[in-house]
Amino acid sequence: MTNYGSFRRISLDISRRDATTRLPWIVPFAVLIGCQLAGSPHLRAQNLLKNADPMSAVNLLPGDAAVLEMEETKKDLPCTTTSIKPILGFDMRFHSGYEISIPLKELAGDGQTLTVVFSVTPNSAKDSPRYFSQKFKVPQIPDDAGGKTLLEGGFDLGEGGYHVRWMMRDRQERVCATSWDVNATLAGREQEIKMTIKPSAVEASEAEFFKPEPPVERKAEGDQLKVKVLINYAPQQSASAAMAPVDASALTSILRTIAREPRIMKFSIVAFNMNEQRVVYRGEDLDEIDFPGLGKELRSLKLGMVDYKHLANKHSPTDFLTHLVQDELAGNPADAVIFAGPKAFLDEQVTQDNLRELEGIGYPVFYMNYMLVPAGSSWSDAPVWRDSIGAVVKRLKGLEYTITRPRDLWASWTDIMSHIVKLKLTSTSAPSSH
Fold it and tell me: What global pTM score does this model have?
C-alpha cells in the first residue's frame, strides 16, 4: 500500500495451470483518475457525478439508486470490499477509499466492464451525499484462470465522520454491494495543521499534480517578501526510471505550501535534476508560481538515464552543484533561499573554497529535505547522514528540515517563515535606529 493513501494501484494477475502472467496495467491511481497514462485504453476515470448543489437530484440509474438506498450486502457478483482508513497526505487532505478483490474466474470471457457507483455522506450533512462513479474495463481472461484480481479506488475528505454506500455491477447486472463508516481525524500535533480541504467536505481525488494554484490574497503591507526556491525534482531512489506518485505529491506539495504563503509577494523558482545535471525550469520574479509551466518542463526529464559524458567525468555531479549554488546564490536579491528535494549523495562534496564568495550572505538559507520512510521500515533503516545539498546549506550556516510525514511539512514551513520574518524585520529596523 502506498504511504499516505494518496495513490492507489490496479493490478491483475492471471494464474493458469501452466503459467502465471502479469498483465501490463499496474497504474498509479492518481493517473487512473485523470486517464493520463498513454496506451491504457482499459482504464476509465473516476468521476464525481454532481458538483453543484448537493441538494439537487443526481441522475443515477434506478437500479443503482435502489441498491444504494437499501444498503443490503449483496454478493451476486462475488467480491470482497475492504475500506481504507483515511490517512493525511502531504497535500494536507485526508485520502480514503476501498480495495476490491474478485476471483478471476468471475471475469472470464472476451472482455468485461465493471461499474462502481458509491456515495459518501458527511455525518454533519446527512441530506447531502456526494456521488461517484468508476469503470474498469477488463481484458480477455481465459476460462481456466485462477487466483484473484485487486482493484482500488479513492476519494478525498476533510475532517469529520462519513458514511459510504458502495456497489459494483458487471454487464450481466450481477451486483456486489456493501456500506461502511469512516472517520477522518487529526490527532496530537496534527491538530494545528491548516488543511486544504474544509471539514466534512468530500472531493474526487486530484489527477493533475501541476494544476494551476488558486489565487492567493497577498499581504502587501510593509516590505515585500521575496523567496528563491531551488528544487531537486527527482525520485528518492536516484536510479529510478519513473517518479513515484508519492514522491511527486510530496515535492509539489512543498512548492504549493510555499506558493500559498500570503506574506510572500515574489517568487523565483529553479527546478533542477542532479541525475541529468541540468536546470529544467527557471521562473524569475513571479507574482505566482506557474505550476502548469513547471510541469510541462519537468515532463522532459529522462529519469534513470545518465549522459555518458557525465559518467566519464567523476567530478561532473559536484561541478554541477557547485556552479548551481554559485550562480543562484551570488548577488541574490531574495529575502531567503530554500532548497527542496530528496537526499542527493555525491562522491565529492562542494569545497569550502568554492563557497567562500558566498560567506556572509545577507539572507537565510533553508533545506526542506524530503525523505519518506517506507511503510514497514523504521528510522534505523533510513540514511540519517547529511547529503551534498545539506552539506552546502550547513556551510552557509543555514537550517535543514527533514520531511517524512505531512506534519513535518507544516511544522518546517511554520519555522522557516518565522525565521524569514524576524530577519527581515531586523534588517529593515537596523538602519532606522541610527
Answer: 0.78
